[in-house]
Design a protein that fits this description.
By secondary structure, this protein is mainly α. It is built from 8 helices and no strands.
Length: 141
């Protein structure tokens, strides 16, 4: 810990999210895998949402998670026209890059389950309303 309370609180909240994601992904999931899953899924989701909805979701994320969410974002290229389950999984896989042993569908489900735990129900409903049925079904828990 840094000894600077705002930073320590932000780091603690990020660790809570990583722990929740790792628990959702299953026993043996490392912090690195949980981080890769979180980053990949948040980027895929962000890029599929409208700019307004992406910003509204970001407002409810912890500060360090919000930084990861916005990292490298070009809002002029969103929303992506990803309409099918397989396309969304492919997008998550692309953002995972060379991360070993992370299933993109499991990553998507685990991160969304964590979002459900920490973000208001109204915001979750808003996010889901912007997604096509196949992607909503993938993320249903």
């Amino acid at each position: 810990m840094s000894g600077f309370e705002p930073f320590d609180k932000a780091l603690h909240k990020a660790h809570v999210w990583l722990n929740d994601i790792a628990a959702e992904m299953g026993e043996g999931t490392t912090r690195q895998q949980a981080y890769a899953a979180m980053r990949a899924m948040l980027h895929a989701l962000r890029d599929r949402l409208t700019v307004d909805e992406a910003a509204q979701l970001a407002a409810q994320l912890p500060v360090l998670v919000r930084g990861i969410y916005f990292e490298g974002w070009d809002p002029t290229k969103t929303p992506l026209k990803v309409r099918h389950r397989d396309e969304f999984i492919r997008l998550v896989r692309d953002y995972l890059g060379k991360t070993d042993n992370v299933d993109p569908a499991l990553a998507a489900k685990a991160v969304f389950a964590t979002l459900r735990k920490h973000v208001t129900q109204g915001e979750i409903e808003d996010v889901l309303s912007e997604l096509p049925g196949e992607i909503r079904e993938l993320l249903a828990v």
